[in-house]
Amino acid sequence: DIDTVCHMVFSLLDAVDPSGYILDMLRSATEWVLRKTADVLAFLALDEGRPAGVMVLNGSTAIFALGESGEITELYVERAHRSAGVGAALIEKAVAFGKSKGWSVLEVSAPELPKWQRSVDFYRRNGF
C-alpha cells in the first residue's frame, strides 16, 4: 500500500525535520523506491486494519558483511501505539526476514543525539 507507506514515512520525516519534506514529493519517491527492486520492502504494522507502524527494509551487499546484509532505513510507530511493542515487532520481522535471506548484518541509523536519545535507546534495547 504505497499511499499508507508514504503517509507513515512522511510522519517520520516530519518529526525529524518539520520543514524538510512535502507529502506530494514523497509520493513519487515512495513508489519509485518500492517498485525499483525486490530488495526494498515496506512492512506495515496494523491494529484492527489501521496502520500503527511502518518499516522500510533494504537488502544490500557489503564486503564487511561478507556478502548479503540489510538496513532498516525508515521505522516509524504512530504515537498512540508507542511503547506497545509495535516497533519491537517490526524489528523482529526484519531480523527473521534477514535470516531467511542469509544476511549476516542488519543495520539501522538514528537521528542525531541528544534530541533523539529515546530512538537510540529503543534500538539498543532491541539488539543494535
Write up this protein.
- The protein is an alpha+beta fold and 128 residues long.
- The chain is built from four helices and four strands; from the N terminus they run ααβββαβα.
- The protein has helices spanning 2-16, 23-36, 86-101, 117-125, and strands at 40-47, 50-62, 67-77, 105-108.
- A four-stranded mixed sheet has the order 1-2-3-4, sandwiched between helices.
- Helix 1 packs across helix 2.
- It is globular and about 40 Å long.
- The model has no long low-confidence stretch (mean pLDDT 94).
What is the CA-atom radius of gyration, in angstroms?
14 Å
Q: Which spans have pLDDT < 50 for at least 5 consecutive residues?
A: none
Largest sheet: 4 strands, mixed
Alpha-carbon distance between the two ends: 28 Å
Mean pLDDT across all residues, rounded?
A: 94
Strand order of the largest sheet: 1-2-3-4
Helix percentage = 40-55%
What's the count of strands? 4
| Strand portion | 25-35%
Order of helices and strands: HHEEEHEH
Structural class estimated from helices and strands: alpha+beta
How would you sum up the global shape?
Answer: globular
Count every helix, treating DSSP H or I runs of 4 or more residues as helices: 4
Layout of helices and strands, plus pairs?
Blueprint: H1 2-16, H2 23-36, E1 40-47, E2 50-62, E3 67-77, H3 86-101, E4 105-108, H4 117-125
Parallel strand pairs: 3-4
Antiparallel strand pairs: 1-2, 2-3
What features would you highlight for this structure?
single chain, 128 residues, alpha+beta, 4-stranded mixed beta sheet, 4 helices, globular
